[in-house]
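Re: duplicated header lines in exported structure tokens

Our pipeline writes sequence and tokens for each protein into one text file. With two proteins the header for the second block appears twice in some exports. Here is an export where it did not happen, for reference. First protein block:
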Amino acid sequence: MKKILVCGHRGFPAKFPQNTLVSFAGAVAVGCDRIEYDLHWTADRKLVVCHNDTVDSTSNGTGKIADMPFAEIRKLDFGRWKDERFAGTPIPEFREVLELTAKLAPQLFHLVELKVDSVDYAEDVLEELSRHKMAGRFTLVSFHLELLREIKKRYPEVLIHGNPSTRLQEFDYEEYRIFDSVGLHRNNVTAAVVAGFHSVGTAVDAWTVDTADEFRKQAAHGVDSVTSNDPATVLAERDKLSN
């Protein structure tokens, strides 16, 4: 069986508060090949890591990230909702994630999800990646497929990873030739779909894959990687299958 890469979805959220430094450190500690996370601009254009465009569901505050200055968001607690042990965990800046992984796992690959449909924002993300010498160790991820296509035209060397609508179950594979990889919801993955994307040179990631049974199912479909909320379980199954 080919080696299927395992990506920690927002780090290791089955065990740690998602999209925090402790979550990413946890993903590194269990041996993830990759991590995935989401970026937003604050009101003062700091890049911060959070899935939603508000802080409501993962902090003790409320409000849209785009309307709040970084200093205000930084005071919020992004850990207690998960467990009292993580009380006081702050929202990370993008640069802090890059600095942490540079120390813990310098070769770790990053799936950097663009949540804002803006070329200026995407270029800000690319500038930060360049400052941290991340060339060849990241791909830009988004459901904003036209944004990714525009970035690829401007920066052909940048890898792009498109997330098609989860409502789609049939694909015009030629439309995806420009993408280096795509992320598909696990329920939309079949061996035929994987073969279709491979026919245009596009790798396939299945998300989210959180159990041993689901990992075996996706492996049989021929995916190149999986993204998991519980990477420890998936990595253990991968090791078992490879022995």
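Second protein block, exported in the same file:
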Amino acid sequence: MTRAIDLNADLGEGMADDAALLAVVTSASVACGGHAGDAATMAATLARARAAGVACGAHPGYADREGFGRRVVPMEAQAIARMVAAQVAALVEAAAGAGVPIRHVKAHGALANLAADDEAVADAVARGAAAVSRDLILLCIAGTAQEGAAARAGLAVAREVFADRGYTPRGRLVPRGRPGAMIAGADEAAARMLGFLDTGLMPTVGGPPVRLAADSICVHGDGPGALAMARALRAALEGAGVRLAPFA
């Protein structure tokens, strides 16, 4: 079994459990003004993360607050790169005031899912991040086009899997609203992740398991059971002898 893994959550999105989740996770991806977040929420989230000893990254997404960034907004690749750069830069500025280093960039929602298979979008996300700093790590859905995009942009890459989402046999997330898209039970999610870390095989909906590699496990901070799931997952991982730590 994998003996060390990062546990991350997407925070700063206006949810009530952010402070409690920061006591559980080892990394946080902070919304930075696109799908959610503003200067005040960024500063508050970063300050709480610093106090909890949690590593921080930027979580840029489409400027679609009504749809929470889960709808594709048609944009040219260069416009996506500028959007990502502007959001990441906004978080870096807020982090400087809070005394918190920004380590990674993770695209949100529809932007991340589109970048999984569209190389032009993946390259735009990576270029936007690199325009702010080539020291940033691109945290991306494991086994997708974003991994190659990070390399082309000169960025290190970290791969993530999702404790609370179902997978297709292609290694992509089952679209929300379809059967099997969400893993609601905390115990089920924990058992699933332990099995994955032991074998490298992720269960899928409607097909055989798919082999993936991961540096981080995500629990979506906006889910109604996010806190219970994160706690159950951390307890299960530590009980199995897995060390939780931010990805390198």
